[in-house]
Design goal:
The chain is α+β, with helices and mostly antiparallel strands. Helix content is 48%, strand content 15%. The protein has a 3-stranded antiparallel sheet with strand order 1-2-3. The chain is globular.
Length: 108
């Protein structure tokens, strides 16, 4: 689903739906919020390597910020990585040896 459709319909992006979305189980808003904040914390362990941070905005979008003060609003997690690449000026590589070493060193 595109970010615009989510704004118009109020639907949750599939990346925020959780692993039990297909089961039809209904989760309460508190649980969904805590899971979203957990995803932000996990993303921030990776984004630190690229000089960026991620914040939740209104429980519906994200703000990507650089250490130099640039920020962009993004609708969902897939766009976070594209935005970080644009802000950092380099590709986000999950197999980057320096990133993996940093994660191993920090115990992530």
């Amino acid at each position: 689903m595109c970010g615009f459709c989510a704004l118009v319909t109020g639907a949750t992006h599939w990346t925020d739906a959780g692993s039990d979305a297909a089961s039809g189980a209904t989760r309460d808003a508190r649980t969904q919020r805590l899971e979203r904040l957990h995803r932000v914390r996990l993303a921030n362990t990776i984004l630190a390597h690229y000089g960026c941070t991620l914040e939740d905005w209104a429980n519906g979008q994200y703000i990507v910020r650089s250490l130099r003060g640039r920020s962009e609003l993004v609708p969902a997690l897939p766009q976070v990585w594209q935005t970080v690449e644009a802000i950092a000026g380099r590709p986000v590589d999950p197999l980057d040896p320096e990133l993996l070493a940093r994660l191993a060193r920090d115990g992530a």
